[in-house]
Amino acid sequence: MPQSIVSSAPLSLPFTSRACAHVTASLRRRTKVNGSTCYVMQCDNCGSQVGEEIAKSAPVIMALAAYPPEWDRELAERYWEETFEDGRERWEIAAAERAQEAADWWARYDAYLESDQWQRLRARRLALDHWQCQAMMNGCDGRAVQVHHLRYRYVFDEPLFDLASVCLSCHRKLHAARPETIPSEAPR
Fold first, then answer.
1. Is 57 helix (H, G, I), strand (E, B) or coil?
2. Same domain, yes or no, for 66 and 16?
3. How far apart are CA 122 and CA 5, in angstroms?
4. In this structure, are 80 and 133 located in the same domain?
5. Tens-digit pLDDT profile for residues 84-105
6. In the chain, count of helices (H) and strands (E)?
7. Can you name the residues that pair with 103 across neighbouring β-strands?
8. Which residues are within 8 A (CB) of 155 and not within 5 positions of it... i.e. 6 or more apart?
9. 54, 13: one domain
């Protein structure tokens, strides 16, 4: 039976609930790439190496009546497969939650664009710009028919200076594709 020790060095992983505290570890013999043998402590739970190599002249090695067991590669592989599967599932759940939050925000934004409050603000911006496109990008027809948010920081309560009158062609270019996420400045 391998000798065990207690360690307090926890191993934590992102997006997982699993964290190994390396509570017990066993002395193992490990063969290096160059073929030489070394002695290490292997966590009995996760299979990770705990601490540094132990010198062959260390009292714990010298007192052994027989060689310690070989490094348990399968233990580590099983633990990491389970851990990464757990992490992948948690990441997928978090990604789905972010996608739903974004979909909810965009639904609220679309509803806001239909509101009387937005329609009044839009009409004021168009009138201030004399219905002239402020973007003037390649292919612009010059006549503004839409109002573009310069930033999303004040969406739902935006000041006039944060809006610009634009033609349909320029507005399409400004929004090449609707993002799948909530704009970084947008209020939640």
1. coil
2. yes
3. 71
4. no
5. 887 788 888 988 998 899 899 9
6. 4, 8
7. none
8. 109, 112, 149, 183, 186, 187
9. yes
